Amino acid sequence: MRRVAIVGGGISGLAAAFELEQRRRGGAQVEYVLYEASANLGGVLRTEHVDGCVVEAGPDSFVTEKPWAADLCRELGIGEQLIGSNDADRKTYILVRGRLVVMPDGLMFMVPTKILPTELSPLFSWKTKLRMMQELFHPPRAVDHDESVAEFVERHYGAEMVDRLADPLLSGVYGGEAAHLSVRAVLPRFAEMERTHGSLGKAMLAARRKVGNGPKRPPPPLFSSLRNGMQSLAVTLAGRLTGSSMVTGATVQALQQEAGGWVVSAGLQSDHFDAVIVALPALAAAQVLRMAGAELSAELAAIQYTSSITVGLGYDGEVRRGLPPGFGFLVPRSEGKRLLAATFVHNKFPHRAPEDRALLRCFFGGANAENVWTLGDEKIIAIVREELQQILGIRAEPLFGRVYKWKSAMAQYGVGHLDRLERIERLRRRMPGLGLAGNGYRGIGVPDCVQSGREAAREAAGASG
Ligand SMILES: Cc1cc2nc3c(=O)[nH]c(=O)nc-3n(C[C@H](O)[C@H](O)[C@H](O)COP(=O)(O)OP(=O)(O)OC[C@H]3O[C@@H](n4cnc5c(N)ncnc54)[C@H](O)[C@@H]3O)c2cc1C
In this structure, how many other beta carbons lie within 10 angstroms of the beta carbon of residue 386? Predict the structure, then answer.
């Protein structure tokens, strides 16, 4: 019997356990124990139901283009609970000099694919619009080193594009800054487009033409989620695992190699395994692997994380009627606000709020999250309300407010991240039976974490059948 330990009961660890459970049920000679430090499984997947609204504390959805989370839901038999974002009403605003300006139609991330809406948009100055036209003539360029997203975008479209679009869009996903994130790790498709076409605009138009020649199908929704919230994925997953294989309230302090396997120490207990999957944020993985491999631990610890705070606010129907249509807004750093973004949940996922309610999900990240971290919930809600009043004119008292703090939860793939991953992989392979899963490596989103957990489990199961 091959014994596998899984450290961490977030979505990465649960997906790993599910993969092993499927194999066990299929007759493979494998068993597993999942160690989770807290009392609950699911990690940052947490949902509250308040006043008829589905309030997400952590992730609220995942990108549909990456199939692994939705595939898992179907395998679990909850495929009918998958919901898509209401893309007919998709509009995102950017705060520019205190006013909300809608992102023009045809922008793919920050690359314009429709000339007219971009040229007419007040989002960009004439200088940036001129840069967009000039960009179409950039020659292919082979860059042999990594660089920051800010440097890359500035080279193509200038500094205003970094401030108004690239930085706020990435802040919404990573909570970090475009000046620190690696273009190769975060926007690999764009780095490749530059290599093949030079101009991102030209590459995007060529890709569109290709799709345009194929059979016409309505595009899938940009984001998917679960009707009752993201936590229902964790709850369903946990329900499919062997109860006695999951140990909650068990913080793993250390992992040590021994002949042919691993020793896992949690509290006063130690247990022996053939393989171990560390499904933790890289920073936490560095700690449990300190004794087993100092060099690997140092590489893992060098992957930076930032903290984030989400605030859910519920309002009545009158506030809802006064809000602009669309999915929400992003705030460029240059606007000097503390909020990074807000989602109008009742528009993005109408199933998540009754018709007479507005549900806003507001987001602090990076330095702004740290600056308000020690404040109590009431103070944080007061800051959000002050900024919502300035931006949206909302003066009404919210019907409810919820604050969720996530310490060092968002991985920042810094410049050189892919080289670091190669070094980590080399060091890991020197430690047979060790697997790494989670958001610190090849994708921060829920689908990436599901895939990383399942892949690590397949490797750990090895020749068990
Ligand atoms: C606020 C927020 C919003 C997000 N929004 C989205 C979104 O909309 N879409 C999307 O796709 N992604 C989103 N993400 C990213 C995504 O949710 C995460 O990357 C992913 O859920 C991480 O899962 P995980 O299992 O790797 O880690 P975690 O969820 O962090 O789980 C790790 C688990 O390990 C446990 N643990 C820690 N140390 C130990 C130890 N020593 N021993 C035992 N257990 C330990 C922890 O208690 C925790 O339960 C968001 C993340 C946050 C924080």
Answer: 13
* Cα–Cα dist 289/316, whole Å: 50
Query: Is 421 within 8 Å of 442 (Cβ atoms)?
Result: yes
Using the mean position of ligand 1's atoms as its centre, give its distance from the Cα of residue 379 in Å.
26
The residue written with tokens 């103070």 in the block is 379
Query: For residues 400 and 384, what is the distance between their CA atoms, to the nearest angstrom?
Result: 13
Name the residue at shortest CA distance from atom 27 of ligand 1.
Answer: 10
- What is the Å distance from ligand 1's center to 55 Cα? 17
Residue with tokens 């595009």: 219
Looking from the CA of residue 41, the nearest atom of ligand 1 is 49
Taking alpha carbons only, the member of 359, 357, 371 closest to residue 309 is 371
Nearest CA to ligand 1 atom 31: 10
Diameter of the chain by CA atoms? 68
> What is d(CA 54, CA 222) in angstroms, rounded to the nearest whole number?
20
Residue 110: is its pLDDT beyond 90?
no
Give the whole-angstrom CA distance, residue 392 versus residue 19. Answer: 46
Number of neighbours of residue 429 by Cβ within 10 angstroms: 9
Protein residue with its CA nearest to atom 6 in ligand 1: 59
Q: What percent of the chain has pLDDT over 70?
A: 98
Q: How far is the CA of 402 from the centre of ligand 1 (A)?
A: 19
Look at residue 268 in the predicted model and tell me its pLDDT: 87
Query: What is the distance between the alpha carbons of residues 269 and 254, in angstroms, rounded to a whole number?
Result: 11
Are the CB atoms for 166 and 178 separated by under 8 Å?
yes
> To 5 degrees, how large is the angle CA 251–CA 441–CA 258?
50
User: Which of 234, 252, 232 shows the shortest CA–CA distance to 34?
Assistant: 252
Q: Kindly state if the Cβ of 446 falls inside 6 Å of ligand 1.
A: yes
Q: Which residues pair with 276 in a beta bridge?
A: 5, 434
Ligand 1 in contact with 204 (CB < 6 A)?
Answer: no
**Neighbouring residues of 122: CB distance < 8 A, sequence distance ≥ 6:** 96, 101
Instruction: Give CA–CA dist 235/225, Å, rounded.
Output: 14
Task: Report which DSSP code applies to 77.
Answer: T
CA of 128 to the centre of ligand 1 (A): 38
Condensed to tens digits (0 to 9), the pLDDT of residues 255-278 reads 999 998 999 999 889 999 999 999
Distance between CA atoms of 462 and 433, rounded to whole angstroms?
Answer: 9
The letter for the amino acid at 382 is: A
Centre of ligand 1 from the C-alpha of residue 439, in Å: 7
